[in-house]
Amino acid sequence: MNSPLEQELIFDIQHGVACITLNRPSVLNAISFSMVQKMHQCLLEWAIDDAVKVVVVRGAGDKAFCAGGDIRSLHDSVVNGDDVYRTFFAQEYALNEYIYSYPKPYIAFMDGIVMGGGMGISQGAKYRVVTERTRLAMPETGIGFIPDVGGSYFLSRCPGMMGSYLGLTGKSIQGEDAIFCDLADWMMSSQNINQLVLDLEAIHADAPIHQQIEALLRQQGATNQVPNASLKTIEATIQKVFASQNLQLIIQSLTQLESASPAKWSAEALTKLHKNSPVAMAVTLRMIEIGKSSSLSACFVNELTLVNQWMDRADFVEGIRALIIDKDHQPHWRYTLNEVTDEKLMTLFPFLYNRE
Asked: pTM for the full model?
């Protein structure tokens, strides 16, 4: 009989292809503490296993790759006053960072919903593959949190101000837009994933492995061209609106734009900016700006430092209560938009400002 851990994650090696399947489809494959630990352990073992040529990560079911971390458990840890959440974040970030330098080809099939923790185990992949079912987002500011799992690194490296737009609003985007934002590399039909995994078993040592993988991707119809990316049409406007490092000025600029030239995207963005946690958005803006000139490791250090201070200074517990537990969708945020000034943030999180 499978243990609970084996039910959460399925590991399989066939002809050199090591596959990890996140197996919690009933909760959109949300990643738990035990999943983080076991996944990291297996990746370390496979890194030195000559029988493993390629690592594939995918989600069970047809709805999600991974919708994030098990935030209800994290909420309970904070409320109960224990340190489980601190250990979870430390080990999750260690796994996320390790994936960026993984010594063997790591392919993440980002099919379906990809949020939060799902981004953490896919953004460092050598091959980030999206499909027609992909719905990708970093929606943490809506639950009183910040885009972590390396968000300060990968959002800060999106073109222009796309990272700030996505991080502040929590906007969900589809496959072509994910590639346009440099949050994915290839797009293919979800129906071809199983065949591609089988095709990977034919990889051999007589040719460069990365060339073989790219050839197999193209053979299954994968492309990295995104002529229909919807964000292309508003990129210049987003660049102007989100260029400021002041949250209030961004909202003011977006309000003026919506008044002068109403559009669906700007109306939705404005609604989100008035609804999401003000302190989470203000800190997100600061973290993305810092991330632009920080190394990957520095970004993870900053995020872990922030998370360890966040729970008793900001809005995570209230956000989970309002959106997940009571589901009244009426969070009572600690600070208003006008209160989250640089002076306030400097008091709450001085390390974000006391930098050489």
From this structure: 0.95
Interatomic CA distance for residues 260 and 263, integer angstroms: 10
Residue linked to tokens 């537990």: 325
* Counted domains in the chain: 1
121/124 Cα distance (integer angstroms): 7
Give, as one character, the DSSP assignment of residue 35.
H
Rounded to an integer, what is the distance from CA 313 to the centroid of its chain? 23
Query: pLDDT per residue over 168-190, tens digit each?
Result: 999 999 999 999 999 999 999 99
CB-CB neighbours of 7 under 10 Å: 11
Q: Residue 76: give the domain boundaries.
A: 1-356
pLDDT in tens, 62-74: 999 999 998 889 9
Catalytic residue list: 69, 117, 140, 148
Helices (H), the chain: 4-8, 33-47, 71-80, 84-100, 117-120, 151-154, 162-169, 175-180, 193-200, 209-219, 235-241, 247-260, 264-275, 278-291, 296-310, 316-320, 342-348
Residues 6+ apart with CB under 8 A from 204: 212
The terminus-to-terminus CA distance of the chain in angstroms comes to 55
DSSP annotation of 321: I
- Asked whether the beta carbons of 37 and 5 are under 8 A apart, the reply is no
Q: Residue 279 maps to which CATH number?
A: 3.90.226.10
